[in-house]
Amino acid sequence: MKIYTKTGDQGITGLLGSGRVPKDDLRIEAYGTIDELNAVLGQVRADGLDPASNELAALLQDELFVLGSALADPDPAGRFHNAIADEHVRRLETAIDAIDAELAPLRVFILPGGSRAAAGLHLARTVCRRAERVVVSLARTPGASVPSAVLIYLNRLSDLLFVMARVVNQRAGVADIPWKGI
């Protein structure tokens, strides 16, 4: 089987189940942005993370693949549509709380950066926020079905990526960069 199928040469692509849509369809944009987020996390992992952060990032990559599948499945009764559930959100919240307990309280806004890994996690956070905006747009589209857990997951994930960036800096002995304000 060849990697190219030529089925998308006219700007149309398939969804899970049945149906084909233009490649600029909001659903495609949504799971494409999730794919981009997953790639950014892969880059951060390749650049090097401490073992605990790397393990968590690997789990997040797996879950993002599941989340992308949920978005690619427009049928509310479809096999993947409800693959992201409340338990995934709770796992993110538990991770946020555990990491936040390691950190000093944040008293100023910080700029993305510090160590290379933290900067990459901040980039992942911004891609996650964009993915969340696209998924919100999709969810507001008449007839589009987006599980509520997907929206909540993305909201929590951006928070997790923020605290991960901070803890990665801390574990590397690199200070966060405070915003000097105006």
UniProtKB/TrEMBL annotation:
Compartments (UniProt record): Cytoplasm
Pathway the protein acts in: Cofactor biosynthesis; adenosylcobalamin biosynthesis; adenosylcobalamin from cob(II)yrinate a,c-diamide: step 2/7
Keyword ATP-binding attributed: yes
The keyword Cell cycle is annotated on this UniProt entry: no
GO biological process: cobalamin biosynthetic process
Record's keyword terms, sorted: ATP-binding, Cobalamin biosynthesis, Cytoplasm, Nucleotide-binding, Transferase
InterPro entries per the UniProt record, alphabetical: CblAdoTrfase-like, CblAdoTrfase-like_sf, PduO-typ
Record domain Cobalamin adenosyltransferase-like: where: 3-168
GO cellular component, one term: cytoplasm
E.C. numbers: 2.5.1.17
One of the record's GO molecular function terms: corrinoid adenosyltransferase activity
EC main group: transferase
Main location per the UniProt record: cytoplasm
Reaction catalyzed: 2 cob(II)alamin + reduced [electron-transfer flavoprotein] + 2 ATP = 2 adenosylcob(III)alamin + 2 triphosphate + oxidized [electron-transfer flavoprotein] + 3 H(+); 2 cob(II)yrinate a,c diamide + reduced [electron-transfer flavoprotein] + 2 ATP = 2 adenosylcob(III)yrinate a,c-diamide + 2 triphosphate + oxidized [electron-transfer flavoprotein] + 3 H(+)
Domain of life: Bacteria
Family: Belongs to the Cob(I)alamin adenosyltransferase family.
PANTHER family: CORRINOID ADENOSYLTRANSFERASE, CORRINOID ADENOSYLTRANSFERASE MMAB
Record-given protein name: Corrinoid adenosyltransferase
Natural source organism: Aquisphaera giovannonii
Gene name, Swiss-Prot/TrEMBL: yvqK
